[in-house]
Design brief:
Belongs to the iron/ascorbate-dependent oxidoreductase family. This protein is of the alpha+beta class and 284 residues long. It is built from eight helices and nine strands. It has one domain: B-lactam Antibiotic, Isopenicillin N Synthase, Chain (Jelly Rolls, Sandwich), CATH 2.60.120. The strands form four sheets. A three-stranded antiparallel β-sheet has the order 3-7-4, with helices on one face. Strands 1-2 form a two-stranded parallel ribbon. A two-stranded antiparallel sheet has the order 5-6. The radius of gyration is 19 Å and the shape is globular.
Length: 284
């Protein structure tokens, strides 16, 4: 990924992402569905316009989520470390360390989440509706059989690693700082809320990393990500052509994030073969 400091915004090449109107997807607008399918099969990432009446309440919840995040992350490290669960799945993750929680037990949730449970429940429910609507729209556009519709592999009552992640990247203190290594996300679809500069995507034409529009790196950067993931028992083919369950792929990829660059270079899991145009496979 590029380490260019985006202080001079006019000189930075930015990615061109297609805006998709969520209200039009709900209305089954054929031209908007065609735009969605085109964006997914070319660039990959796209903007989702949820300013319409059908989803605008999600933007209102977003504002409140940022307030909760700022209050939480501004706490002393020793306070946040009380939410360190010792694994990589959930919980507080300090820089360079994986932390999480097993079995999705509410008793282990951070206090900041417990006192805002209604906000978190509402936000997750609305984000899930948006992502599942997009998945359903894509399945219809691809004329998928009803028995193999994408929704069938993302059942609400089944076990999965679908999750909400709240991220704060500390402001850059020197030009060599990097918030995250290059990767594809783990799952079917990521709904990302990010208003500040820092996110990069790989151009399918140039295979270079381009910034998306945003603010500056001189302040802490916050983003909210809802990761829609397959049911844990769903199996598919990995980039090496081997069968793998969604749970195993998730666990393997999370472990890869903690590996050294030398170890990461030895397998295809980090980028899901996106960095190898001569081979085909999943990119999740």
């Amino acid at each position: 990924m590029s380490r260019t400091s985006p202080h001079k915004l006019s000189q930075i090449k930015t990615a061109r992402l297609e805006p998709i109107d969520f209200a039009k997807l709900l209305a089954r607008d054929e031209s908007e569905i065609a735009k969605l399918l085109s964006a997914c099969s070319t660039t990959g990432p796209f903007y989702v316009d949820i300013q319409g009446q059908s989803a605008r309440c999600l933007l209102e919840d977003e504002e409140n989520m940022y307030k909760v995040m700022e209050a939480y992350f501004d706490q002393p490290l020793e306070v946040k470390m009380q939410d360190d669960r010792g694994t990589y799945k959930r919980g507080y993750k300090p820089p360079g360390i994986f932390a999480g929680v097993k079995d999705n037990r509410s008793s282990l949730l951070p206090a900041a989440v417990k006192i805002q449970m209604r906000l978190f429940d509402d936000f997750i429910s609305k984000a899930h509706i948006v992502t599942m609507t997009i998945m359903s729209t894509l399945a219809n556009a691809l004329h998928a059989d009803s028995s193999d519709h994408f929704e069938q592999h993302h059942r609400d009552k089944g076990d999965s690693n679908t999750t909400l992640v709240l991220l704060r990247y500390p402001k850059d203190v020197n030009s060599s700082c990097v918030g995250h290594n290059q990767h594809t996300d783990i799952g079917s679809l990521t709904l990302l809320f990010s208003r500040q500069w820092g996110l990069q995507i790989m151009s399918p034409e140039t295979h270079e990393w381009d910034f998306t529009n945003g603010g500056t790196p001189t302040e802490n950067r916050y983003s909210i990500a809802y990761f829609l993931r397959l049911g844990s028992d769903v199996t598919y083919e990995d980039p090496e052509g081997l069968p793998v369950s969604a749970k195993q792929w998730h666990d393997n990829k999370c472990q890869t994030f903690a590996d050294t660059h030398e170890q990461q270079a030895k397998n295809s899991i980090l980028m899901g073969e996106m960095d190898n145009t001569n081979r085909q496979g999943i990119a999740v």
